Amino acid sequence: DKEKDSLQESIDEKTEKIAYLEDNLANKEKTIFNLQKTVTQLELSLDQLKDALNGKDRELASLHRQFDGVHSELGETVRVKEMALKENRRLQDDLATMTRENQVISTELEVTLREKEELKVTVHNY
């Protein structure tokens, strides 16, 4: 009878231990399932972030190309501006030279016209 009680007690302990282990196993399986679900969601999110990053990389490369183009255009514009300024200075110098030459010719013309009038007067007096 004592042995039977001891065996029954051992069976009860083992049954409780089995129930505990089964419950523990079920909890761990549930945790594993939830973690796998989380990993799947994180992988999906990671893929989406990679796609977004690739898009941003393409956009950045495009902006770099645009910047390089604008920078090149700016360099060309500065070069054209410098050439235009140089041409403008040359034309201003030419204009100043022509203005001086015109003044000299005008002065010579006035002198010549006076001399002509004086000669007319002289010829008229003879």
UniProtKB/TrEMBL annotation:
Keywords: Coiled coil, Cytoplasm, Cytoskeleton
Cellular-component GO terms for this entry: centriole
Keyword Cytoplasm on entry: yes
UniProt source species: Micrurus corallinus
Family, similarity comment: Belongs to the CEP135/TSGA10 family.
Coiled-coil boundaries: 4-108
Keyword Cell division: no
InterPro entries reported for this sequence: Centriole_BasalBody_StrucProt
Annotated localization: Cytoplasm, Cytoskeleton, Microtubule organizing center, Centrosome, Centriole
Protein's name in the database: Uncharacterized protein
Source organism superkingdom: Eukaryota
Main location: cytoplasm
